[in-house]
Amino acid sequence: SGVAKDKLYSTPEDTELVWKTLSPISSMFTIAAAFGNVHGVYKPGNVKLQPDLLDSFQKNMGPKMGYEKPFFFVFHGGSGSEKSDIEKAVSYGVVKMNVDTDTQWAYWEGLLKFYQAKSGYLQGQIGNPEGEDKPNKSYYDPRKWVRCSEESMRDRVIVGYKDLNKSL
C-alpha cells in the first residue's frame, strides 16, 4: 500500500488525543484503535493482529486517569480473527466487535446449502426428482431459503457471542 507499517497501528499518543478530545463532551465513548484489525477476511499472515497494543494504551493512560482501564475499545474488522486474539482484545477493553464479513458469509452459506440440498427442485417451476409433473413452489418460495440463511447467520452470531462472552 506504500504506507509504512508503523503508521498502520494506533499509538498511545493517538488514544490519549482521542480521550482528551472526546472526554469533555462525555465520558461514555468508544475508541476504534487500529491494532492490525482490518475490514474483511484475508489469508492468514497478511494481517498481523496485535491486541497487546490495546493493553499498552490502557497502561499508558490508566495512571494518568487514576484507574486501570480508562478506554472502551471497538474491534473493527473482527471477522476471521483467532479466538485467542479475541479473548486478549476483550481482556484489554474491547466492548464491541464487528463481524459483518463473517455474518454475510454465514447468510450466503445458508442459501448455498439450501440450494445444494434442494437443487433438483430448483431447476423450474414444475418437474423435480419426484416426477416431471410435480410442482416446486414450496422450494423456491423465498420464505424457505431466506429462513435457512437467517438460521445460518443466527448460528454464526451465537458463536461470536460465545467467543466474546468467554472473556467476560
How would you characterize the overall build of this protein?
- By secondary structure, the protein is mainly alpha-helical.
- 48% of the residues lie in helices and 9% in strands.
- The chain has helices spanning 12-22, 52-65, 83-91, 100-118, 137-140, 142-165; strands at 73-75, 94-97, 126-128, 131-135.
- The strands form two sheets. A two-stranded parallel ribbon has the order 1-2. It has a two-stranded antiparallel sheet with strand order 3-4.
- Strand 1 (73-75), helix 3 and strand 2 (94-97) form a beta-alpha-beta unit.
- Helix 1 (12-22) packs across helix 2 (52-65).
- The model has no long low-confidence stretch (mean pLDDT 90).
Characteristics:
single chain, 168 residues, mainly alpha, two-stranded antiparallel ribbon, 6 helices, 9% strand
